[in-house]
Amino acid sequence: MLGTLLMVLFNAILVWSLMQERQSQIQQLETRLEQLGSVNEQVLSTVLAPYGLSSKAQRGSFVMPVQFKLALSSGSLTVYSQPLWQQHSHWFIAINVLLLIFLWRLVQWLRRTEWRSARAFSHRGGQKKEAEHQDTHPASANLLGVNQLYQSVFAIVYCQRLSSVATGIASLFETLLQEQLQHQQRVSVKVLNSGCLAITVKEVAYKQLETHLQNFSVMALKCCRNLLPDLRRDEVKVGLCNYRSGADQAVVYQLCQSALALARQSEHKHCYRIPFSHNHSMLLAAKSCSLVDAINNEQFVCFFQPVFGLYNEEIIHHETLLRIRHPQLGLISSEYLLSHSTPESAARSVDIAVLKRLETMLKSEQLQADISLNIHPSSWLDDDMWRRLEEFLTAHSRVCLECPAALLAKQPRLIAKRLKSTAACQRGIIVDQLSKWPTDSLSTLKVPIKAVKLASELISHVDTDRHIQRRVLSYVANAQRFGIAVYAVGIERQQQAEVLKQLGVQGAQGFYFTGAINQLSAFNLPQ
């Protein structure tokens, strides 16, 4: 049908254009005959021939000729011509042949496209049936006592503007979220005392889990915007935790709260996920282990983690790290045993123990590079601890302090006063865990800054996130203006090291460089 319409349309356009041309020729012929005046039959035939006309009708033709009457001053003159389709038959044949070839190729292309689409659809349908068949037979998983083919998702959604009316919108939010889900999982929404919305999505197929988790923050944002259309993206923060059946719900809740805390601290990433694993249960169980008892019983080790140059692969300096010997988990960081409820005296006792152990290590180990030392923020505020630290730094000229960037931003005057009054700190310090460039804080310091260490939250996605790359590049540019070196902490992949090198970061430390060295270089006193 479409091909017929196209052919009729093109032929009609051709006939119309030829008729317009014929009318123009008739007008030109009339003007020329008026100029010639009275002419005989032979001259008239000569004048009409270029226009495809004749003064007499052709006899014996199967096609009736077309006649035209020319209006002259001396009277009307009748002339004859072949029909347009016969006179210009070559045009009609060429155009219709081209149209037929085009339509034939178009039909062939549509048939191939339809066949490929049908084949792809049947292939996807077969895969879907196969997946459904596999999902309905979790025999091997049931032998283990858990269903490995399904997981649940627990999420906490924080929106300050909705927290005051969260109780009234919980059921509406659940309905809106149910509409967003593609596979109709069971959803429940509850309101926490803080005003946050706690969401549980049951039985998400494992093959759909990653897609579901990636889209969850978008679905939560859409639901919130259905309630408050003028919400900005950074006003909605989401913490996620996916877990299998039988997981400790208290651990799941704490992991989700931790993910939400990370999301609320980040300026640009609004959703964090921490998947549940049995290691998390063990790490949370480590809270029962007393940090003070571990220090008093000397159940800890200190070692030097080197910072390598990204350009020459030489050791720039060493950072002193502490690990606690846990009876079940092995060597763990003391951060797992520290909490807000930990007394400051316990944290200072850890720093005192590290100073004693470091002094012993410096006597026995011959290191070419300088050494940096981190202390707890409470030790910066304690006068007795600071005097002890000042004596240690004076006795060991190769050791310098690392100051957390968060503490420097919070207490810039106090930190500047401490450093200015300590002669040993005049040789320079290192700013640690830098996530935002401290313009005002650096201007208050009266001591040299040897280097700044970028926070691990910048490093974890630096190889994929262009926004983080731009931030790191701006920090490197700021550091170069002050003559400060920039180091990275927590390097785990080669891609991270390559990107940081291109951004101008001079050194880095982490598992990628020293994962196998830490245990070999660990130093522990005999008990």
Automatic annotation (TrEMBL):
<dbReference type="InterPro" id="IPR035919">
    <property type="entry name" value="EAL_sf"/>
</dbReference>
<feature type="domain" description="EAL">
    <location>
        <begin position="284"/>
        <end position="527"/>
    </location>
</feature>
<keyword id="KW-0175">Coiled coil</keyword>
<dbReference type="Pfam" id="PF00563">
    <property type="entry name" value="EAL"/>
</dbReference>
<protein>
    <submittedName>
        <fullName>EAL domain-containing protein</fullName>
    </submittedName>
</protein>
<dbReference type="InterPro" id="IPR001633">
    <property type="entry name" value="EAL_dom"/>
</dbReference>
<dbReference type="InterPro" id="IPR050706">
    <property type="entry name" value="Cyclic-di-GMP_PDE-like"/>
</dbReference>
<feature type="coiled-coil region">
    <location>
        <begin position="19"/>
        <end position="46"/>
    </location>
</feature>
